[in-house]
């Protein structure tokens, strides 16, 4: 191969790399998934203990909580989920900003806007759908529905960021579909989907993208 051909090939790779960076949000850090997964597991364990659902080893401690109505428990679970979401989003913003500064790219541009829109539409639709499930007393379908719509959101947003996010979405959708048929395992599926899978994909993305110079 001549020097001119090598130079042309390098230019093509450079142009391809620039197009990839301009069309995808590459500042998403794998540490975001790791921390989000850890927060989700902690939140799920807290909910388990509160509801007295993790076996006899915790039954005495769990029953020491003042129990009221089903709606009191629901408020507690919603508050627990909101705290987990707040901590996850806060860490996500921190690591994303840090990663964008490291790579010297803008965090808010047309690509990140498209990413946010494609992520939020399924999430908002899922939130309204879950409210409807609660209204009609279909509590057992809430857990798998959150996994389903979150999976749709990740799969949809994965077009504008690392491809692993799409794989995460497919995994979450799979768990949600399983949960529809095994309604009594909502907490376990939450831990697996929002906890373990987030950590697993976060670690993969961290070593694949974050550690690059």
Folded structure, characterized:
- The protein is an all-alpha fold and 213 residues long.
- It has 8 helices and no strands.
- The longest helix has 34 residues, at 70-103.
- The protein is globular and about 50 Å long.
- The two termini are 29 Å apart.
Brief write-up:
The chain is 79% helix and 0% strand. The protein is mostly helical and 213 residues long.
What does the secondary structure layout of this molecule look like, with pairings?
Elements: H1 3-23, H2 30-51, H3 56-62, H4 70-103, H5 110-135, H6 142-157, H7 164-181, H8 186-210
Helix pairs in contact: 2-3, 2-4, 2-8, 5-6, 6-7, 6-8, 7-8
Q: How many separate domains?
A: 1
Query: How many individual helices?
Result: 8
Number of strands: 0
Radius of gyration: 21 Å
**Main sheet specs:** none
Enumerate the spans where pLDDT stays under 50 for 5 or more consecutive residues.
11-23, 54-65
Using brief descriptors, characterize the structure shown.
213 residues; mainly alpha; 8 helices; 0% strand
């Amino acid at each position: 191969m001549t020097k001119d051909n090598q130079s042309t090939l390098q230019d093509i790779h450079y142009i391809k790399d620039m197009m990839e960076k301009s069309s995808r949000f590459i500042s998403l850090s794998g540490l975001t998934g790791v921390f989000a997964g850890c927060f989700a597991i902690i939140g799920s364990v807290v909910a388990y203990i509160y509801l007295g659902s993790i076996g006899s080893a915790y039954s005495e401690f769990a029953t020491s909580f003042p129990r009221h109505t089903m709606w009191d428990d629901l408020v507690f679970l919603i508050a627990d989920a909101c705290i987990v979401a707040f901590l996850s989003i806060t860490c996500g913003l921190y690591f994303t900003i840090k990663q964008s500064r490291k790579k010297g790219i803008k965090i808010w541009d047309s690509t990140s806007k498209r990413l946010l829109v494609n992520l939020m539409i399924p999430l908002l639709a899922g939130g309204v759908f879950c409210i409807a499930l609660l209204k009609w007393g279909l509590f057992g379908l809430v857990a798998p529905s959150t996994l389903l719509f979150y999976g749709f959101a990740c799969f949809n947003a994965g077009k504008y960021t690392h491809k692993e996010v799409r794989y995460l979405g497919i995994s979450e959708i799979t768990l949600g579909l399983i949960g529809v048929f095994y309604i009594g395992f909502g907490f376990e599926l939450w831990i697996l989907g929002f906890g373990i899978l987030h950590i697993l994909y976060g670690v993969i993305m961290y070593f694949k993208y974050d550690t690059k110079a």
